[in-house]
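Format notes (please read before filing issues)

Several people have asked whether sequences and structure tokens are stored in separate files. They are not. Every record keeps both together, in the order shown below: the sequence lines, then the token lines. Line labels are part of the format and must not be stripped during preprocessing.
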Amino acid sequence: MRRLIRRRTEDHYFDAPGTAPVTTGILYDPSGGTAAVSGGRHARIRTAARRAAALAAGAGVVAGALRVRSRLPS
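Then the structure lines:
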């Protein structure tokens, strides 16, 4: 079974040795203006959830400050 899996993997997923182009990669040169990093899958949802949590926390702080202020003697 292992031999069958190995043979299938080598035949279908790997190129023949020496077929990759020779490049320096981006180790010594910048990748250019088209390079970008995204948040991955569900990044917008996580960002929206963090913003909502920050807004809720901020509202809680403001509400607590107003509550304390209303209890202070005038």
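For reference, the curators noted about this record: The mean pLDDT is 82. The CA atoms of residues 62 and 71 lie 14 Å apart.
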